[in-house]
Design brief:
The complex is a heterodimer. Chain A is of the alpha/beta class. Chain A has eleven helices and 25 strands. In chain A, the strands form eight sheets. Chain A has a five-stranded parallel β-sheet, with helices on one face. A four-stranded parallel β-sheet of chain A has the order 13-12-11-17, with helices on one face. In chain A, strands 22, 23, 24 and 25 form a four-stranded antiparallel β-sheet that branches. In chain A, strand 6 and strand 7 form a beta hairpin. In chain A, helix 3 packs parallel to helix 10 and helix 3 packs across helix 11. Chain A is globular. Chain B is an alpha+beta fold. In chain B, strands 1, 3, 4, 6, 7, 8, 9, 11 and 12 form a nine-stranded mixed β-sheet that branches. Chain B has a three-stranded mixed β-sheet with strand order 5-2-10, with no helix packed on it. In chain B, helix 4 packs antiparallel against helix 6. The longest helix of chain B has 20 residues. Chain B is elongated and about 70 Å long. The relative contact order of chain B is 0.09. Classes of the chains: A alpha/beta, B alpha+beta. Chains A and B meet through helix 1, helix 2, helix 3, helix 5 and helix 10 of A and helix 1, helix 2, helix 3 and helix 5 of B. Bound molecules: flavin-adenine dinucleotide. Chain B: This is C-type cytochrome.
């Protein structure tokens, strides 16, 4: 371990507080560009951090409705009691104190792209030179679905706790049924990972219980080899995988999923609804990809609909996966581009992003999935570099340990 | 950055001086940094054979108090802490005697969960009971580096009123050994950083040592050729283009290299068992090339390496080479096998 990071902690924070107490007297005469970031998830928090890490000449305001952020990553491990929510909860203190980011806990009601202002629920209006919007996903309506009783747990927090409690209360020989929406949705391997983790929990805690996966897709969307092996071998007799089962409606009282392939009744029903970009993307008029996602130029993540607004993370519509690791990667491309654009220089012409994902398969083993995306100048899109994309050949205990290290590192690169 | 540095060091000085002083055995409660008036505090109470109790909290303050010398072997103490912040407790005996001072980091245990960070709610006491601190170096549980700091934190059962906060990436304990960084002994001179006037052993006292790391890249400003992290060497801040002259535009190496940080840590300083890249400048290019052309596909980094062209790999290596001047002191290969990727 580098000796500096150990010993500098107190000194660093005291310096940071001085910087806050005497706000940059030296530079007071210079007009400082103001960048506002909406959303403090993996995308927004990283963008805010790196704007300031790379430049002390810009002011950055991060607006996030919640004071604490519950990571979806590793949240499936709360369901089988391997982790508690507190371990994957982060706040914005370090971003505020060490990086000098102004953090406002409020909801953004609207964005005025013409006048470059945003309005908060508390009535304040803020101006921006550049705006980054990273609101994640919103869930689309499913007839009859009441997510307060039939949890999706696809945003970590109270929903995660609710699903965990329902599983704990499930009878022996009970039926757990989950539904997966048509791609694209947040975290391609996530639902299959969840099925495995829950099957493992039920196997030891609820003898005779089963897992049914109702997938709207024609086949496993991510890590096909890993998950088909897990369903057919590791959880043979416990997991039933049903492709092409499109959810039509839900009976939230009886816990029944009505699908294109018939009705499925459950003791615990987990409906992951179809998703689209976060609400503010729609109200701002940025959802120009299939009416669901925000079209952007992947060199800068600037919206193709409105100038000076950038969209990163799950809400963007570039075809890159909706995942936290790559959201962090997109955020860096966006922050770097904004600093260049503020200087009248073009964005870096050949950005690369990467995705890395570890999936727990049992309580002690995990697999991984990875891919690198490079900018393709001919089509103006991010394209996967074919050789770079692949999954682990087996789930191992070593991968499980690396999963925790990977998550630890990603959390720190985003929030600390 | 220069004016800020000197002001900062002055404040650091006062913080460290008050915090290190230890006081003189009285029974008074002192808070080492000015406290903002707050009504939402809770009390940590208990008794110890030592005198000084310190709490390092996520509001960036250090709270401390001394126990009351009441003639018995168990000295009661009360330390008021704000609600909603995560604190780490350290208890000290003989705090004024450098050769006999015993520093005991405390860890809370509940069921199978243990953590050095905890928090509480306003008005609800966290009573730790009697904490069996050691009073002399000889009696210490373990002190292999003879710095007067217990090698491992001392576990006490968490009172029900305390929340045991597990923290994934603890910025106060970056190597996650339960000893907060400020009580590590970085230069191995048997004096923990908190009591060491020259933590890095470079011969320049900390108070005048200008190696503060303004850009958090792990290199002190003295040895950092780019201490504002703008990708351009210090004193060479020629902006590109005609926009805001205060924003500097670097080449693509910075952006490409930053895509390694998700796993290898911000600026390549790892906070986990994954290999750090800082200080590995010379090896990055050759290792990535090797992985890129390897036929073993059951390794996540071998896959990743295939995503980068040779010139991109060169740019990434050059970024780390520039930042770390090819020195190899900053690397982190904490699994000790010299290679975390096979
Ligand atoms: C079970 C599960 C497992 C996963 N595992 C992985 C994994 O292993 N690897 C991986 O890479 N990814 C994983 N993911 C995906 C990852 O969590 C998401 O892709 C990631 O969180 C997206 O980041 P984001 O910043 O775009 O959105 P979010 O993380 O959702 O953040 C958006 C933030 O914006 C705030 N917000 C929204 N609108 C407003 C507004 N109007 N005003 C103020 N604030 C607002 C929200 O409160 C929220 O905090 C997983 C997801 C799930 C559900």
């Amino acid at each position: 371990m580098n000796s500096f990071n150990r010993r500098q902690f107190l000194k660093t924070i005291s310096l940071a507080s001085v910087a806050g107490a005497f706000p940059n007297i030296v530079k007071a005469a210079i007009i400082r560009p103001h960048i506002v970031v909406i959303g403090g998830g993996f995308a927004g928090a990283t963008a805010a951090k790196y704007l300031r890490h790379w430049s002390t000449a810009v002011d950055v305001t991060l607006i996030e409705v919640n004071a604490n952020y519950n990571s979806c990553i590793l949240s499936n491990l709360v369901l089988n009691n391997q982790m508690n929510l507190g371990q994957i909860t982060f706040n914005y203190n370090i971003l505020a104190q060490q990086y000098g980011i102004r953090v406002i806990n409020d909801w953004v009601n609207s964005v005025d792209g013409q006048n470059q202002t945003i309005s908060l629920r508390n009535g304040t209006t803020l101006g921006y030179d550049r705006l980054i919007i990273a609101p994640g996903v919103q869930f689309l309506n499913v007839a009859g679905l009441d997510s307060n009783r039939i949890p999706h747990a696809w945003k970590a927090g109270t929903q995660t706790t609710l699903l965990q409690q329902q599983l704990a209360a499930m009878p022996n020989n009970g039926k757990f049924v989950m539904t997966i929406p048509a791609a694209p949705y947040r975290c391609p391997p996530g639902p299959y990972e969840r099925a495995c983790v829950i099957a493992d929990y039920l196997r030891t805690n609820k003898p005779g219980a089963t897992v049914t996966i109702l997938d709207a897709n024609a086949d496993i969307v991510a890590e096909r080899q890993t998950f088909s092996q897990a369903f057919n071998v590791t959880y043979n007799g416990i997991i039933e995988y049903v492709p092409n089962a499109v959810l039509q409606s839900v009976d939230s009282d009886q816990r029944i999923a009505h699908t294109s392939l018939g009705d499925y009744r459950a003791d615990v029903l987990n409906v992951i609804p179809p998703q689209s970009a976060g609400e503010i993307i729609h109200t701002t008029g940025l959802a120009n990809v299939g009416g669901k996602w925000a079209g952007v130029n992947p060199l800068s993540y600037e919206s193709t609909a409105i100038a000076n607004i950038h969209v990163i993370g799950d809400s963007q519509g570039t075809g890159q996966p909706k995942a936290g690791h790559i959201a962090n990667a997109e955020a860096k491309v966006c922050a770097d581009a904004i600093l260049r654009l503020l200087n009248n220089a073009p964005p870096f012409a050949a950005p690369v992003t990467n995705s890395a994902c570890y999936s727990p398969i049992t309580a002690t083993t995990a697999s991984w999935l990875t891919a690198v995306y490079a900018y393709d100048a001919t089509t103006g899109t991010m394209k996967v570099v074919p050789e770079s994309s692949g999954e682990a050949t087996t789930h191992t205990a070593q991968n499980y340990r690396r999963m925790l290290d990977w998550a630890n590192s990603l959390f720190a690169d985003t929030f600390a | 950055m220069k004016p800020l540095k000197s002001t900062g060091l002055m404040l650091t000085t006062s913080l460290l001086m008050v915090a290190c002083g230890g006081g003189g055995g009285g029974g008074t409660t002192t808070t080492t940094t000015p406290t903002t008036p707050t009504t939402t505090t809770f009390a940590v109470t208990g008794s110890v054979p030592g005198t000084l109790i310190e709490a390092f909290c996520s509001d960036n303050r250090v709270y401390s108090t001394q126990s009351v010398q009441n003639g018995s072997a168990q000295h009661p103490f009360t330390l008021n802490l704000p609600q909603g912040v995560k604190c780490r407790l350290v208890m000290i005996t003989n705090e004024n005697d450098p050769n006999n001072r015993v520093v005991t980091p405390i860890r809370l245990r509940r069921g199978t969960t243990t953590s050095i960070a905890f928090s509480g709610v306003a008005g609800s006491d966290v009573n730790l009971g009697y904490v069996d601190l050691k009073l002399s170096r000889i009696a210490m549980r373990a002190d292999s580096n003879s710095d007067g700091v217990e090698d491992a934190p001392f576990d006490i059962d968490a009172p029900t009123s305390a929340t045991v906060d597990s923290i994934f990436a603890d910025t106060m304990d970056t190597d996650r050994d339960g000893i907060i960084d400020t009580y590590e002994d970085d230069d191995g001179d048997h004096v923990p950083n908190r009591h060491d006037d020259d933590d890095d052993g470079d011969g320049t006292p900390d108070l005048t040592d200008n190696d503060f790391d303004s850009d958090h890249d792990g290199l002190g400003d003295d040895e950092d050729s780019d201490d504002d992290n703008d990708g351009d060497n210090d004193g060479d801040n020629t902006p590109v283009g005609g926009g805001n002259s205060n924003i500097i535009v670097p080449d693509g190496g910075r952006l490409l290299a930053s895509q390694c940080f998700q796993c290898h840590g911000t600026e390549g300083r790892s906070v986990s068992r994954i290999e750090g890249l800082a200080g590995e400048a010379g090896e990055i290019a050759s290792e990535m090339q090797e992985m890129k052309y390897s036929t073993n596909l059951n390794d996540i980094m071998h896959r990743q390496a295939k995503g980068y062209s040779d010139s991109e790999i060169q740019a990434i290596a050059a970024y780390f080479a520039n930042r770390y001047g090819g020195n190899s002191t900053g690397g982190n290969d904490s699994d000790g096998d010299g290679d975390d990727d096979d």
